[in-house]
């Protein structure tokens, strides 16, 4: 037997995984049965890296069946196969999360900008985008990770699972030759959830939404003139640009009052509709479509 056995608490400390989570893994069969060696009862030291891998994969939202498959190949020290399985699982999970983002965004549009349900759905889509960004980062890291060493703390899967997702890339056709639109989720402290609340307050002041004369991919929000409101809108526009710099935000103050012009690429039309809404006529048409 290699090394002294570790009880669950010791395994949790070495793997840096909460003991409650390890207990769940043990109950789900993701950890091997604890062994007995004289008066000792616990796990081999080699389970430290396996537990760390399980926690990383679990944090991506992978299901128990996938975790069990990964644990089995990991313990066989088949890093190449583990990496292939992990990459396929991450891709499948990413596809599901992106579908969920589209669904939540659509429900935000249906709820109407500024409503309580709108804020809930938009907040859920932001959380999902954060999950997707992590999955995208892990997926990218797996494509370049080495897999010619035994599974362990120094293998490619371990380094890939540690990848931080700070940027969400919108789905796009890889054959288009253009880079995917991307949002920096940590810009200005990553306060997207807070901004939803601020948007909710200012959207109650919108008098009407008009189309823009120069592009079909935008909207101008008209507000009553108010100095404090103008300052809030300017702060929101700057924060949104820091996050999603593919958009254009123009604040106009003139004899007609106060308006915010928002322009987006066509690929971000769903985001535009979800956050600030469509021009009034288009919104009515969309609501009346079967």
What ranges have pLDDT less than 50 throughout 5 or more consecutive residues?
Answer: 284-290
How many β-strands, per DSSP?
8
**Estimated share of beta-strand residues:** 5-15%
The coarse silhouette is elongated
Order of strands, widest sheet: 5-6-8-7
The arrangement of helices and strands along the chain is HHEEHHHHHEEHEEHEEHH
Helix content: 40-55%
Written account of the structure:
This protein is α+β, with helices and mostly antiparallel strands. It has 2 domains: 162 residues, no CATH class; 92 residues, Endonuclease I-creI (Roll). Helices cover 53% and strands 12% of the residues. The chain has 11 helices and 8 strands. The strands form 3 sheets. It has a 4-stranded antiparallel sheet, covered by helices on one side. It has a two-stranded antiparallel sheet with strand order 1-2. Strands 3-4 form a two-stranded antiparallel ribbon. α5 runs antiparallel to α6. The C terminus is likely disordered.
Summarize the structure.
By secondary structure, the chain is an alpha+beta fold. It has eleven helices and eight strands.
């Amino acid at each position: 037997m290699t090394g002294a056995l570790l009880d669950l608490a010791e395994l949790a400390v070495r793997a840096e995984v909460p003991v409650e989570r390890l207990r769940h893994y043990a109950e789900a069969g993701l950890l091997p049965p604890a062994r007995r060696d004289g008066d000792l009862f616990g796990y081999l030291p080699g389970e430290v890296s396996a537990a760390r891998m399980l926690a990383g994969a679990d944090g991506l939202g992978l299901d128990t069946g996938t975790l069990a498959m990964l644990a089995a190949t990991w313990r066989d020290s088949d890093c190449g196969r583990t990496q292939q399985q992990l990459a396929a699982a991450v891709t499948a999970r990413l596809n599901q999360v992106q579908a969920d983002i589209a669904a939540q965004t659509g429900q935000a549009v249906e709820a109407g900008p500024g409503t309580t349900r709108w804020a809930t759905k938009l907040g859920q889509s932001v959380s999902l985008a954060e999950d997707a960004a992590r999955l995208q980062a892990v997926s990218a890291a797996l494509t370049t990770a080495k897999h010619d060493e035994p599974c362990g703390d120094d293998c490619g899967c371990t380094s890939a699972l540690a990848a931080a997702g700070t940027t969400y890339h919108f789905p796009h056709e890889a054959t288009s030759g253009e880079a995917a639109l991307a949002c920096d989720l940590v810009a200005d402290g990553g306060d997207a959830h807070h901004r939803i609340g601020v948007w909710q307050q200012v959207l109650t002041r919108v008098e009407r939404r008009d189309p823009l004369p120069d592009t079909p991919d935008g909207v101008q929000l008209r507000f009553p003139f108010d100095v404090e409101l103008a300052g809030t809108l300017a702060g929101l526009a700057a924060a949104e640009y820091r996050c999603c710099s593919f958009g254009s935000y123009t604040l106009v103050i003139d004899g007609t009052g106060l308006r915010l012009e928002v322009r987006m690429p066509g690929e971000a039309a769903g985001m535009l509709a979800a956050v600030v809404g469509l021009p009034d006529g288009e919104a009515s048409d969309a609501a009346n479509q079967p």
